[in-house]
Every structure is written in C-alpha cells, then in structure tokens.
Write a structure and sequence with these properties.
The protein is an alpha/beta fold. It is built from five helices and five strands. A hairpin with a 5-residue loop joins strand 2 (49-60) and strand 3.
C-alpha cells in the first residue's frame, strides 16, 4: 500500500495547488456507477442486473477534471451518498456553488451552502442558462467510460472494501495525470515549433546581410 498512499498524497497536494482554477464557474457534476463483483438490480430493460459496488465521481464543469471518486457499498440510495461525496471534494478544492446530478439523486435531502440541481426531462420554468448547464451534466459520461476502459476502473484487483476505495481514487488520479501529461506535451510541442520558426527567421536575416 505504500505506493498507493504516496500517490494519494501527491494527488491531493497537487490538486490543492489548482484550487483557484479547478472550479472556474463553481459548477460540479456527480454521477454514480458500478464496479467490482457484487450483484445489484438496476431495473434496466436491456440489463436487469449489474455487478459491482457503486462509485460516486465528481468532475469539474470545464475540463472534466475528477476531484472526487468514492466507492460506496451495500447498494445505498444515490441521494444519500451526496453529502459524503461533497465532503470528499472539500479537501481537494473549495466547494462549488452549484452541483448538477442525475435523476437518481431525487430526494437527496442535502441541506447546505451548495445548490443542488437534479436533472429533469423537460425545462419547464428553469432559466435558460441554468438549463444549459443541466444538459451539460451528461459530459461526465465519456469520462466514466475512459475510467473504465483506460484506467482500470472496470475491474478492481485490490482486496476488500479498502481496495475498492483505493482503486476508485487511483483511477481518477491516473486520468487527471494523463490529462496533465497531454497538456504538458502540447505546451512543449508549441515551444519547439516556436523555437524552430525563430531559428529559421534568424538564419534568413543572416543570409540577407
């Protein structure tokens, strides 16, 4: 567990340095899904049973940075996990002003400074700007797909309840680090081409002189 704990320490320490920009608009998206090997009846027509423990993930409104990943057991109601999920986000960065969740969080009973917006099928009297953000909540779904396909969230190989929780956090941290590496590669790529163009310009000037 030493490498896992070491990685967790640096993940939270680095996330704190991004606390100013991690919530550019104060919006946060939540979505629960399943991992591991415990059977749960979801009531879906095409897939009556799914196997795993629930994992609640939180991502920023822009960039899709994961700032929370919490494995919960015994198949709790999604709305009852919201308070603990927000408490997990607090050490990583400041709490957002608005949180957008899917319809599984109806009746969550959360009372706090954060405004919870539950998705709905029709706009009704919802403000147009707020409705746009509510529809934006679906952007977390591709991120969950990447967590499962590329960051070992689809099958946990760590033991026990603690292993489920560690695997969820490490998967989210690994995806964040992957995004950071891509951003660093793009930055170095732009610097390289700028230096190359600058060198060609200086060579042309020397030749003309």
């Amino acid at each position: 567990l030493l490498p896992s704990g070491y990685l967790l320490f640096w993940m939270f320490r680095f996330a704190k340095t991004l606390s100013i920009t991690v919530f550019p608009d104060g919006f946060l998206f939540f979505k629960p899904y399943l991992v591991q090997n415990r059977g749960i009846s979801k009531g879906k027509a095409h897939k009556r049973y799914e196997f795993g423990c629930k994992v609640s993930v939180a991502a920023t409104s822009r960039g899709g940075w994961f700032v929370g990943a919490m494995a919960v057991h015994n198949n709790p109601y999604d709305g009852h996990t919201l308070k603990d999920a927000l408490e997990q986000v607090r050490p990583v960065a400041r709490l957002p002003e608005h949180v957008f969740v899917d319809m599984g969080y109806r009746g969550h009973g959360y009372s706090g400074d954060v405004k919870i917006h539950v998705d709905k099928r029709r706009r009704g009297r919802t403000a147009k700007s707020l409705w746009r953000w509510m529809k934006r909540r679906a952007a977390i779904e591709p991120g969950i797909g990447h967590l499962k396909a590329e960051h070992r969230m689809d099958r946990n190989r760590l033991k026990g309840v603690a292993g489920d929780r560690i695997n969820a956090i490490l998967s989210a941290a690994g995806m964040n680090f992957h995004k950071l590496l891509e951003a660093a590669a793009d930055f170095l790529h732009s610097i390289f081409f700028w230096l190359l163009s600058y060198q060609r310009t200086m060579t042309l000037k020397v030749n003309t002189m």
